[in-house]
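Q: What residues go here?
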């Protein structure tokens, strides 16, 4: 057993960012789910467009859960591999953000605001203490 003090490598700021991102993403997903249901009834969507965008929302949820899980795990256990996995999952997450902000069939102002805020949170988490 080492006799001297050990250096703590985990970051409280990063952990708080991950926890806040997890809570925000849960609310974000519910809001986007409701917006998609509203769009299905109120806007003239082609069925294939709506279903593919709705499926992408579910894929996005899975990617975000994996990203947040590995980020929290890597930060708490002070291991590089889970943090790298979390960082790697940030790229597909960013691509989904760009799709929903730029190429989605109908982008409402609420969509844009929610995705913008979520992207800013993810950017803070990805940069960590830098």
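A:
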């Amino acid at each position: 057993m080492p006799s001297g003090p050990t250096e703590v490598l985990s970051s409280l700021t990063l952990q708080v960012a991950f926890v806040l991102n997890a809570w925000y993403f849960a609310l974000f997903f519910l809001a986007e789910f409701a917006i998609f249901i509203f769009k299905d009834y109120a806007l003239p969507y082609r069925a294939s467009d709506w279903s593919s965008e709705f499926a992408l929302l579910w894929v996005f949820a899975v990617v975000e859960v994996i990203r947040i899980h590995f980020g929290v795990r890597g930060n708490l256990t002070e291991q590089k591999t889970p943090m790298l996995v979390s960082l790697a999952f940030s790229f597909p997450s960013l691509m989904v953000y760009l799709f929903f902000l730029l190429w989605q069939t109908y982008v409402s102002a609420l969509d844009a605001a929610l995705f913008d805020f979520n992207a800013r949170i993810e950017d803070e988490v990805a940069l960590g203490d830098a």
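A: Context that may help when evaluating the design: The longest helix spans residues 12-42. Residues 17 and 108 are 27 Å apart (CA to CA).
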